[in-house]
Design a protein that fits this description.
The complex is a heterodimer of chains A (177) and B (166). Chain A has helices at residues 17-71, 75-78; strands spanning 91-98, 101-108, 114-116, 121-132, 138-139, 145-160, 165-175. With 177 residues, chain A is α+β, with helices and mostly antiparallel strands. Chain A has one domain (17-175). In chain A, strands 3, 4, 5, 6 and 7 form a five-stranded antiparallel sheet that branches. Chain B is α+β, with helices and mostly antiparallel strands and 166 residues long. Chain B has one domain (25-162). Chain B has two helices and eight strands; from the N terminus they run ααββββββββ. Chain B is rod-shaped, with a radius of gyration of 32 Å. Classes of the chains: A alpha+beta (177), B alpha+beta (166). At the A-B interface, helix 1 of A face helix 2 and strand 8 of B.
């Protein structure tokens, strides 16, 4: 009646089991396809938001490094955390506002950095020495000399965007004159 | 077409149907039921899709406004010599001693010297500036209120903008 081409039975009464099954399967397939599409777009939407926020949190680390670069005369000590650990090799650092100044707090490299928004984002800073060649250009260490006026700051953030673990890094150099 | 054939067709059209089975009441009810079910399902998926589109549009709007806010702030803060932050107001003193003021308006938008620069469909439910040694920390929350068929979307974040090393 509804599917005359599929009809094999000679009488005119109702659907055959095959017809019913085919109909239900088609409907289910469409339903599943549409809901999958919709849930996927929602997921991508969330991933976009988390990506944007991760960029902000990451950029903040660089900006804080730029604040620290300018805010104290003993700038070299800025890159050592309040607990006395340097922000490299065995320790990574994260910033904390105390009053109107930024300070660096160190954690071990296994308990990495600072956890934001219920552990969705983890961010940290490392600080590396900078070497210069005979022309005073920045060069991979060890080179002709260890620069006393420059440090390299590397900011890293990792987060889960719903599809998997993401990592993003930014680098900058800080100077003293 | 010959008039004879035309007449034949006309005759056929109005011949009462005999010995042809129509639908029984049960068949009609079942068919209506299935049709109703299918329509509801399609309608449901359709509205779900529409809601989804609205939510995505709202999120996109929040994203671009958050980006624009940070770009604007970065532009002025980097040029500023002195910053004064108090709650949701940030005053940026430029090298020529003029002052740029970032604040919120009564209709919950962010203003630059009194001129709103965030979209009017977005409510700024939180804006806070904290002045640090050579930077300013910004905390903000943007909200798009739930309209019929869309959920409330929000974005809130904190970030910091440093002044230039001059």
């Amino acid at each position: 009646m509804f599917f005359p081409r599929f009809k094999k039975s000679t009488n005119n009464k109702g659907f055959s089991i095959i017809e019913a099954l085919v109909g239900i399967t088609l409907a289910a397939l469409l339903l599943v396809a549409f809901t999958a599409l919709i849930s996927q777009t929602i997921k991508i939407n969330h991933a976009n938001t988390s990506g944007l926020k991760a960029t902000m949190y990451l950029q903040e680390l660089i900006e804080i490094a730029k604040d620290l670069e300018q805010s104290t005369s003993t700038w070299q000590s800025n890159w050592i955390s309040t607990t006395g650990q340097e922000c490299n090799t065995l320790y990574v650092c994260y910033p904390m506002a105390s009053g109107t100044t930024w300070t660096l707090i160190s954690t071990t490299t296994t308990a990495k950095g600072e956890y934001l928004e219920n552990n969705i984002y983890t961010r940290w800073l490392t600080i590396e020495n900078v070497c210069r060649d005979s022309n005073k250009n920045i060069d991979a260490c060890p080179s002709d000399e260890l620069s006393t006026s420059t440090k390299k700051v590397i900011a890293t953030i990792t987060w889960n965007n719903g599809f998997g673990s993401q990592t993003s890094t930014l680098e900058t150099y800080v100077y003293t004159y | 077409m010959a008039s004879g054939v035309k007449l034949q067709l006309l005759k056929h059209m109005f011949t009462p149907i005999k010995n042809k089975r129509g639908f029984t009441l049960m068949e009609t009810i079942v068919a209506l039921g299935i049709g109703l079910l299918a329509t509801t399902m399609v309608f449901y998926i359709f509205t779900l899709g529409l809601k989804n589109i609205q939510t995505i549009k709202n999120t996109e709007s929040l994203h671009s406004n958050a980006n624009f806010l940070l770009n604007t702030l970065t532009y002025w803060v980097k040029q500023g010599e002195n910053l004064t932050a108090s709650g949701s107001t940030l005053e940026i003193e430029l090298p020529d001693s003029s002052i740029k003021t970032i604040a919120t308006s009564s209709d919950d938008r962010i203003t630059l010297d009194g001129v709103p620069f965030t979209s009017d469909n977005i409510k700024v439910t939180d804006l806070n500036f904290t002045k640090m040694a050579r930077s300013v920390q910004i905390r903000f929350t943007f909200t798009i209120e739930a309209k019929s068929g869309s959920a409330t979307t929000t974005i809130s974040a904190t970030t910091t903008i440093a002044q230039r090393n001059i």
